[in-house]
């Protein structure tokens, strides 16, 4: 299983999914390849006995990937450094690198199968030669600047691209391609949790070893990339290059995956737009444990409580919720908004705090931090309000449903599919609409809200239980492995 | 199709609130993030889905020209006040370390009567040698600690910075104790001094080496710790020497002891403050493989050793050459020592200036490279060359002025056994070394330290060999020729390397700062 910025080093919905999958499938042994921002993150989950290996692949936070690399003992790292000379780079790496860049920048010029082969060839190169020495060589720098300054973008004038922008782009490419230099352990199946850089081992495994590749999409990675890159990168040139790179990686993932398994039907729209054949798509809904997430028998609150659950960062849209809180307070002066979750983007968190100050909501909106007892929190709240601007199929929603919560949420991703008619949906990023929906639910009697909650739980029990989810994945694993074995046998007989 | 008012508002809103969108998919993502579902899009704009809408909005791209993001720095951005601030910051950073040496030197020249004289003079020469040896052997570890520690501090991770220092300090202590033991056995074998004094010198060597390494560790977490301790112990020395009338040697031993105790206390409190906690699940975050860490830090280790090796090479060979016996190891040629000390003082005073000019050159290099296009990069090489030679001229000017002032000032005091010609020769040698140092600091900033190590090592060898041969054949004072020969090689070769890097200025900008 491959992950990116999630399990087992960070919390969140994808990590919950990975954890449940590994915990609830004792018949499957897992090796986890986790792509992480830096090597200093500590494990956030206890691993079950069937997780036989965790391979951490940090992208930042080191001067050279060999610091935490797989080449050990030291003699192996040294040999690869010595073997990497200017001649090696010029003759063996640069031809591949040039095709790779062409495939990224001018996708119409390279077939996707050929691009996949180039990724494999580069991976094989890095199994033998040193990554850092190659990627920081003058050969790579010269080749890169020549290729990226040719007129490949109508929006950008090549003669106006600065050295700073080229440097930033190549440095980002260096970091993002680090997963390519890691050997892929021998496994029966590769399961990626995202159609992103963590899917590259799946692509390589598929092409090189014929290993079946299952791709799960929680959110739409490419969509989130487009939104995220806007906030972090001001240079149009750098952003455009990263768009192209992300597109190439996503296309490779979609093309080489045996099954693309989005967590909701909503995601299939984007996958269809990106030319994934419908027969390759299989929706597998997330599921939660109804024994753990069940109604709590709490007395009625003396003031209305609205709660929100999720990491605090832009995609979760807490700023919208805070603005909505200001409107709700006008009608319900004693209302309390409790926002549970760790701030994963400190700048965004600071903006949230500034917004609270701006609307003088210090006594209304409370950041309650992380909780490891979410069922209790759902049970305490009168309303669960979700404000994301992008989602896959959020655990927070199905867990809240199983806890019989009255839910209002932005209509993003698979939230609408999850809730059906058992909760209220509003457009994303529209505080007034969100506030009105919250007011509507708060205006109901407690019994009416409980009734709505009961319908939510019943829908959850029918469609989104953990057992159902796990069994579907297990069946898919078996089917993919069986098909591959049959194919291998057929090939052997033909030979 | 799609020409209604709401659509025009949406188009305006997208291009106004999300300037410089450059991809139709980006617009599709933005439209969805604005809360538009396919159902809402069909109802409001009459088109199938977000993709069609996004593509339509993108087709209007030409109506909304890209907004220039002006990242270019204002050319005259550095005001005189900023310049002074940078100068003070860079200058004080290095100058603080020369204060103890300056005070020691001045007190050496002042006629202070000694009342308390418990330690024998024989130890003086041994301690002099041991000080040089400790600087040479420990500075490799000091460089390793600083380099890696600063890397983690740059990542805002003081716990990791703290953890990484421990294995390096352990390696340093092990090496120091090993070298001290070998030195003691060698001392016994050659009969360099009385057995008891050799053991004291060995312990003093370990103590001093530990102090240099602790300075590096404590300096990572407490920026002002090193300057405060240095100024503090210098004041203590002054009090011991001038008011309590202790001998220079005893004052020095007390000064070192106070420094050691202060650093030990700070180190322990630092470890307690930044100790790593075992995570709830799994193992503690591992440090990088030690073997690989050492491999990556070897250039810095060698730089530290060779740097001080070069500075003290002529003194060591002068003493060996003058006596032809190891018993004269420890600085019997006091005339040579005193004359060299004056020149060394000039070097120590010019080092902060060298660092300031190298900082300015690198800042200029980075600022210009970042905002210029490839076509303009050729001009960058030319302007960097101009700036480089102008810095060299200034360093020469200031060094000459400083050397003249020092000579005049100290000629007014008691000159002891100093020799004017030797001091002038040494000044020439140290000036050339300062040029090499200027180049080295630039290469260090460009992460090209490996390129200069061979040059510095060869220069040190030339210093040793030429100094020893000439010192043995023509007399001890000729050891200074080794310093000059080595410095010429160092200055010329390192300058060539800098000019080569300037030729590919844009690649250097990319290569540095990983």
Could you explain how this protein is built, in words?
The complex is a heterodimer of chains A (495) and B (514). With 495 residues, chain A is α/β, with parallel strands linked by helices. Helix content of chain A is 50%, strand content 11%. Chain A has 19 helices and twelve strands. In chain A, α13 links the parallel β8 and β9. Chain A is globular and about 75 Å long. The model of chain A has no long low-confidence stretch (mean pLDDT 94). By secondary structure, chain B is an all-alpha fold. In chain B, α16 runs antiparallel to α17. Chain B is elongated and about 100 Å long. About 1% of the residues of chain B have low confidence. Chains A and B meet through α2, α6, α7, α9 and α10 of A and α2, α12, α13 and α18 of B.
Task: Sum this structure up briefly.
By secondary structure, chain A is α/β, with parallel strands linked by helices.
Question: Main attributes?
Answer:
heterodimer; A: 495 residues; alpha/beta; 6-stranded parallel sheet; 3-stranded parallel sheet; 19 helices; 12 strands; 50% helix; globular; B: 514 residues; mainly alpha; 77% helix; elongated
């Amino acid at each position: 299983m491959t992950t990116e910025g999630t399990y087992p080093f960070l919390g969140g919905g994808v990590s919950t999914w990975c954890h449940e999958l590994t915990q609830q499938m004792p018949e499957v042994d897992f090796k986890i390849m986790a792509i992480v921002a830096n090597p200093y993150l500590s494990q956030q989950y206890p691993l079950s006995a069937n997780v036989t290996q965790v391979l951490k692949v940090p992208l930042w936070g080191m001067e050279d990937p060999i610091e935490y690399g797989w080449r050990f003992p030291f003699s192996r790292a040294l040999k690869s450094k010595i073997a990497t000379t200017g001649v090696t780079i010029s003759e063996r790496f640069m031809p591949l690198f040039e095709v790779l860049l062409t495939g990224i920048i001018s996708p119409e010029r390279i077939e996707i199968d050929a691009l996949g082969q180039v990724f494999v060839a580069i991976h094989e190169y890095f199994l033998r030669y040193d990554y850092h020495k190659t990627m920081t060589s003058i050969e790579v720098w010269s080749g890169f600047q020549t290729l990226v300054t040719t007129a490949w973008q109508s929006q950008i004038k090549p003669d106006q691209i600065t050295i700073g922008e080229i440097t930033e782009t190549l440095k980002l490419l260096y970091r993002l391609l680090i997963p390519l230099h890691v050997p892929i352990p021998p496994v029966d199946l590769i399961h990626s949790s995202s159609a992103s850089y963590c899917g590259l081992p799946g692509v390589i495994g598929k092409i090189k070893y014929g290993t079946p590749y299952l791709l799960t999409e929680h959110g739409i990675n490419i969509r989130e990339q487009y939104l995220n890159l806007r906030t972090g990168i001001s240079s149009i040139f750098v952003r455009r290059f990263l768009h192209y790179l992300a597109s190439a990686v996503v296309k490779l993932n979609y093309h080489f995956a045996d099954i693309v398994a989005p967590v909701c039907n909503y995601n299939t729209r984007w996958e269809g737009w990106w030319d994934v054949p419908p027969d390759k798509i299989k929706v597998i809904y997330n599921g939660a444990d109804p024994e753990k997430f069940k109604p709590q028998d709490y007395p009625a609150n003396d003031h209305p409580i609205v709660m929100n659950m999720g990491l605090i960062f832009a995609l979760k849209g807490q700023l919208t919720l805070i603005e909505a809180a200001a409107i709700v307070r006008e009608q319900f002066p004693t209302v309390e908004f409790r926002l549970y979750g760790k701030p994963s983007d400190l700048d965004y968190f600071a903006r949230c705090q500034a917004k609270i100050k701006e609307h003088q909501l210090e006594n209304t909106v409370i950041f309650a931090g992380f909780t490891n007892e979410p069922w209790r929190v759902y049970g305490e709240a009168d309303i669960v309000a979700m404000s994301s601007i992008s989602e896959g199929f959020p655990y927070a929603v199905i867990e809240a449903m199983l806890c019989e919560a009255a839910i209002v949420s932005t209509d993003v991703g698979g939230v609408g599919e999850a809730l059906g008619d058992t909760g209220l949906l509003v457009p994303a990023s529209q505080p007034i609409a969100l506030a009105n929906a919250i007011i509507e639910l708060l205006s109901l009697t407690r019994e009416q809200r409980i009734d709505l909650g009961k319908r939510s739980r019943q829908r959850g029990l029918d469609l989104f239980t953990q057992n159902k989810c796990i069994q579907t994945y297990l069946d898919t694993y078996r089917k993919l492995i069986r098909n591959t074995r049959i194919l291998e046998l057929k090939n052997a007989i033909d030979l | 199709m799609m020409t209604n008012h709401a659509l025009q508002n949406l188009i305006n809103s997208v291009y106004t609130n999300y300037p410089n969108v450059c991809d139709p998919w980006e617009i599709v993502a933005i439209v969805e993030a604005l809360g538009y579902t396919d159902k809402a899009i069909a109802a409001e704009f009459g088109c199938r889905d977000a993709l069609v809408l996004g593509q339509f909005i993108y087709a209007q791209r030409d109506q909304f020209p890209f907004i220039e993001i002006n990242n270019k720095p204002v050319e005259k951005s550095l005001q005189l006040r900023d310049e002074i601030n940078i100068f003070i910051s860079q200058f004080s950073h290095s100058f603080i370390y020369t204060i103890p040496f300056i005070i020691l030197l001045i007190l050496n020249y002042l006629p202070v009567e000694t009342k308390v004289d418990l330690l024998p003079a024989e130890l003086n020469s041994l301690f002099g040698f041991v000080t040089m040896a400790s600087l040479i052997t420990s500075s490799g570890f000091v460089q390793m600690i600083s380099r890696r520690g600063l890397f983690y501090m740059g990542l805002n991770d003081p716990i990791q910075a703290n953890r990484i220092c421990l294995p390096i300090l352990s390696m340093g202590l092990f090496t120091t104790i090993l070298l001290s033991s070998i030195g003691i056995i060698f001392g016994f074998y050659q009969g360099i001094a009385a057995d008891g004094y050799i053991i004291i010198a060995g312990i003093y060597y370990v103590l001093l080496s530990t102090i240099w390494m602790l300075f590096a560790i404590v300096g990572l977490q407490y920026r002002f710790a090193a300057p405060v301790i240095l100024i503090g112990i210098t004041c203590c020395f002054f009090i011991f020497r001038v008011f309590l009338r202790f001998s220079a040697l005893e004052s020095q031993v007390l000064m070192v002891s106070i420094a050691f105790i202060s650093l030990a206390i700070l180190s322990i409190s630092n470890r307690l403050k930044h100790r790593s906690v075992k995570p709830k699940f799994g193992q503690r975050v591992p440090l990088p493989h030690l073997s690989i860490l050492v491999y990556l830090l070897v250039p810095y280790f060698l730089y530290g050793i060779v740097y001080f090796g070069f500075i003290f090479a002529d003194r060591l060979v002068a003493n060996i050459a003058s006596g032809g016996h190891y018993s004269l190891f420890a600085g019997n040629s006091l005339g040579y020592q005193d004359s060299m000390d004056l020149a060394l003082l000039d070097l120590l005073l010019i080092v902060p200036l060298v660092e300031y000019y190298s900082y300015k050159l690198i800042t200029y290099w980075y600022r210009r490279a970042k905002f210029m296009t490839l076509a303009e990069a050729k001009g960058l090489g030319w302007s960097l060359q101009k700036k480089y030679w102008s810095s060299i001229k200034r360093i020469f000017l200031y060094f000459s002025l400083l050397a003249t002032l020092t000579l005049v000032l100290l000629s007014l005091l008691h000159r002891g056994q100093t020799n004017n010609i030797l001091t002038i020769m040494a000044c020439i040698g140290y000036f050339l070394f300062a040029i090499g140092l200027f180049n080295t600091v630039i290469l260090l900033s460009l992460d090209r330290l490996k390129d200069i190590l061979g040059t510095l090592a060869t220069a040190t060898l030339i210093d040793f060999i030429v100094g020893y041969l000439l010192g043995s054949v023509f007399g001890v004072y000729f050891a200074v020729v080794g310093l000059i020969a080595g410095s010429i090689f160092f200055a010329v070769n390192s300058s060539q390397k800098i000019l080569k890097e300037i030729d590919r200025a844009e690649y250097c900008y990319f290569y540095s700062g990983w």
